[in-house]
Design brief:
Blueprint: H1 8-13, H2 15-24, H3 29-38, H4 40-61, E1 64-69, E2 72-78, E3 82-90, H5 101-109, E4 116-124, H6 129-138, E5 142-144, H7 147-156
Antiparallel strand pairs: 1-2, 1-5, 2-3, 3-4
Length: 157
Amino acid sequence: MKYTRLTKEQFEIFHQQFSEFLATQKIDTDEWKKIVETNPKLTEDQLDLFSDIVWDDALNNAEYLEHISAKDLKAFKFNEKTIEVLSVKINEDLDIDLTKEESIKLLFENIMDSRIDLFQGNKNIDTIRNEEMFQLVTEGCIITDGRMFKALKEIIN
């Protein structure tokens, strides 16, 4: 298994796709029930394989990740061989909590304040792109549409 198994809730979201996946394995509903009851190893293998397929699809289609805490924001853009990283660090004495939606507006209104530090960097992808991206997701990043990255990039440039 390359990633982690989907949660029960995620499997419920992907119920239709999982049924289609089983059909490609020539497993119908009755056959699946029988496998679940009699063959735990095959059940685990099928759940893991489907989870990897879902993760691969999500990561292949992702380009941007974000990680936001109260005083820190990191936005990532994944290119083929490099990752662009933009970082915002809010000093403790500035009353902006980035976890609150209204504070993002305050951030951009005060972006030139000396108590806000902006950083920009690039990093070579050391492993496989999807594995590196998945590692960041397991550390708390979320896949985004890139609006935050693009807005910060425009300000930094």
